[in-house]
Fold each of these.
Amino acid sequence: MYRALIVEDEDLMREYLATRLTDICPDWEAAATASDGVEAVEILAHDHFDAVLTDIRMPGMSGLELARIIRRTDPELPILILSGYDEFEYARASMRL
């Protein structure tokens, strides 16, 4: 089973993604969750994941900044950036990462 780190500042969405990931993608499990990018960096320093699912806008550290940090340490780790925003610049920035 593949292990994912879920990074989302909204409690309900974080819990939803964590509990439903395996239902949506049977080969995947939410191995850990973080409420922001700062917490995610700490978790990533001590554990291995097959992918990171992160919100784009969060207090403390955004999903884009988290992706930049991940790319410096693990350029091959898949990152899925989630957003409820329709601003094109977010999409452009996330695609570069």
Amino acid sequence: MQVKIAQSNLMGSVAAPPSKSYTLRAMVCASLANGQSRINWPLSADDTLAMWSALAGIGIDIRGDGDAWWIQGGRFTTPCSALNC
């Protein structure tokens, strides 16, 4: 058996599945940053939606759809009621 190995170029991309841990960290970082941040392919789960609610409760503007969430960070307010953390 003869095998010939030649130089080649690999091309392509890999999309990692959404991660609850990464989504939560990105939400906190985005809320602390000034200006608008975009989180691509966030994981929508009970914990991340609870974080969404808690951040909204302290004045962080969060919007999004299935593929991306936009967070306007940097401005916190005192919550009017208890936060579900």
Amino acid sequence: MKTIFDKFDKGVIASLPQAAFAGRIEVVSGESKAKSAVDYLLSQPILGLDTETKPSFHRGDGHKVALLQVSSHDICFLFRLNHIDMPDCIVRLLSDTEVLKVGL
């Protein structure tokens, strides 16, 4: 059984070894490339997810997600949502229930 923590000691984090992604990174800023990237990603057993959003410094202000990062073990796709919005293929990827998706 694995224990999941909701708080981490910054000293412990600083003592951990650094890791770097050794795979390929591809920027996706067009819908046709997004479709082929999603097809590849949905063929993988597990995916890592992260997003980037413009920060907001005022209560009540918010911004759309600008970048969706989705990675398999060997390729990380950076979907520029601020350029391609939310095409159907991204909705299909995020709605899929077959491929395990992990995010932090």
Amino acid sequence: MNKSEAIGQLAAALAKAQGDYKALPKDAKGYDYAYAKLDAYHTAIQTAFAPHQLSYIQSIETGDNAVRAVTLVMHESGEWIQ
């Protein structure tokens, strides 16, 4: 895991944001099961993060015969965790 030198403000903001998470409706169906759509996750995260000055970006990395989704969570203080 990569992170900024300090993450105290980020950790406090994430704890508050996690308290704001809402259960997502599983309103899509496929392969014999129900699931929440990807855009619902994005909306839920933004709704919980924004009031606590949190944001995130995602990128794709390749190498070592693997493909990875990498998420960077940032706080307005400049603290971050990847």
